[in-house]
Amino acid sequence: MVKAPRGGRWLVLAVLVAGAPLAPGAARAALPVAVYPVAADGLLADERTDLTAILEAGLRDAARRGVLRQGRRLGPDCGTAPADACLAGLAEGGAVLLASAVRRRAEVLVTAALVDARGRRTRSVTFGSNLSVQNTRPVDLALEALEFELLEPPAAGTAASGTITLPGASPPRPPGPAAAPPRPALAASARALEPAPPWQRDAGRWTTAGGLALLCGGGAVAWLGARLTRDLEDRYQAGTLRPGDEADYRRARRAGQAATVLLVAGGLATSAGLTLWALAPDVSPVRGGATVGVAGAF
Hints:
With about 300 residues, this protein is of the alpha/beta class. About 45% of the residues lie in helices and about 15% in strands. The longest helix has about 40 residues, at about 200-240.
C-alpha cells in the first residue's frame, strides 16, 4: 500500500502556490511539459485532437500552482511505444506528458504519466473524460497528483510501486490487494464534481403525486354530490320534499362545482408531472462527474 502524502509535500506545494502571484518569474520557473501524441484505441482523428487540446488546457490551468506549465506539442519522434530514454531527450529540461486512451461506453478512459529529462517516469494517472463536454477538471486533478511525484521523486535506481485510487476513479485494471487512503484535498475536489440529480425527475414525481391526489379528492366530492342529488330526486318522486331541502340542493350544486374544479386541476397536474418525468435526462453519471485514478511505475 502506498502511504498518503506527507505534510512536507503539501508545504512545498503551498509555498509554490502562495509565491506564484508575488514572483514575476513564477510562470517561467514552472516545469514546461511537452505533450506527446496520444495513443488512442477506437478514437477518430478529431477525437484524438480534442483529447490533446483537453490535456493542454489542463496544463494551462495547472500553471496557477507554479509546478507545471504547458510546453510544446511534440510529434511521434519516438514511435508508438516510446522508450523513457527517448522521451527524456525531448523533455528539454522539463517533462513529457505521455498519454493513451481507450473508449469505454460513452466515456474515454485516459492513462497519463510524466517522463522527466532524466528519464524517470511517474506513476500513471487514469481518469475519465467526456469529449463532448471537454471538462478540464479531471485533467487538473490528475496533474495535481503527478506534481507530488515530481516534488518528491524516488531515489535513483528505484521504482515507485503500488496503486493510489482517488474517489470516483475508474482504473483500467482492478486495484491491488490494498489501496491507499485518498489525499484529503483531492477527495474534496472529487466530491465537488458529483453532479446533482435532474430536477425534472423529482418535480415530475411530486407534481404527478399531487395531481393524483386532486383526482382522488375530486372523485370523492363528485360521489358525495351525486349521492345527495339521488336522495333529493327520490324525495321529489315520493312527494316528501320539505322547505328545508332547499339547502341540500345548494350543497349538491356546490359539490358538483368543486368536483369539476378538482378533477380539471388534477388532470392538468398529472399530465404536467408525467411530462416532466418523461423529459428528465436519463443519464447515469460516474461518481464525481469525472473520474481520476493513479497507478503505475516510476
